[in-house]
Amino acid sequence: MHAVGVDIGGTKIAAGVVDEDGELLESTIRPTSAQEPELIEEAVADAVAELRQRYVIGAVGVAAAGFVDPGRCIVRFAPNIAWREHPLGEILAQRLGLPVVVENDANAAGWAEFRFGAAQEVADMAMLTVGTGLGGAIVVDGQLLRGAAGAGGEVGHMRVVPNGRACGCGHDGCWETYASGTALVRETKAALTIEPERAERLLAIAGKAKKVTGPHVTQAAQEGDPLSIQMLADLGRWLGAGMAALSAVLDPAVYVIGGGVGAAGDLLLGPAREELDAQLFARGHRELPEIRLATLGNDAGIVGAADLARLPR
Ligand SMILES: [Zn+2]
Asked: What is a single molecular function from GO for this protein (predicted)?
């Protein structure tokens, strides 16, 4: 059965037809505005209708940022869109005349990597998506972990530093305030004011300190910029430290790292690996978890949502 996966982002909606092998057969995009939530449903319906002109579709899966109820229908809270206890799945199902499931976007991407991507041969994995925040998806014994309230797998809000940096969630010391693209850029800018002489390459690429982005840091590091190499290594060590904590609870065989920072490769993964190994519980009596880069890129949300839509309720 073909299913449509829909990825609702901050500025656009991407929808695609996915077959049972996880192949994305065709996709389409609609612009959207978080300020007008009712137009989002309109745009999703329009995109699905376009794809249905050429494919027989059996189900629709929708990936969105936020908490989704365990019944995979209601968006309980979305950080960027004014959805509160919003029955998105039901509204779309009525509109489309198809079964619709809704899933947290990081969960959908992680599921895609588990089924068809970087971790397809293991039963236990965790995906960490390093972006604005730190998204998490956890698969235990072949099952996506959602938790009792639908808020499971939100690893970015594990507290790693008591009384640490303030987090957008209202608490402090959350993992994502240390291990995210946002943290990388913020810390790099701070370091630049102290040691600009160690970042000549970075400053040449970015133009000026306040214009630095994550991809600038990665490019400069790959070209040997000492400060950029150090900042990526710091990010890697924060990732590794959190992974070690997760391993004590979940013991995944594989960690999949997603997000643009993966382009840094071993400049990021090397320090992450070292820190994970150094802090891993029972290290002498076990296989070490592997760290791999995600393979499905920006399509992961679409592919994962579509595949989850095919699973029995
Ligand atoms: Zn937090």
From this structure: ATP binding
Q: Look up the CATH number of domain 2-111+299-310.
A: 3.30.420.40
- 159 CA to centre of ligand 1 in angstroms: 8
Q: Is 40 helix (H, G, I), strand (E, B) or coil?
A: helix
Q: 232 CA to middle of ligand 1, Å? A: 21
Q: What is the ipTM of this complex?
A: 0.99
Give 7-24 pLDDT, tens digit per residue.
998 789 999 999 999 999
Could you tell me how far CA 119 lies from the centroid of its own chain?
15
| Assigned CATH for 122-294 | 3.30.420.40
Count of residues for the chain? Answer: 313
| Rounded distance from Cα 170 to ligand 1 centre (Å) | 6
Ligand 1 centroid–CA 111 distance in Å is 23
Question: How far does CA 270 lie from the centroid of its chain?
Answer: 21
Could you tell me the residue ranges of all domains in the chain? 2-111+299-310, 122-294
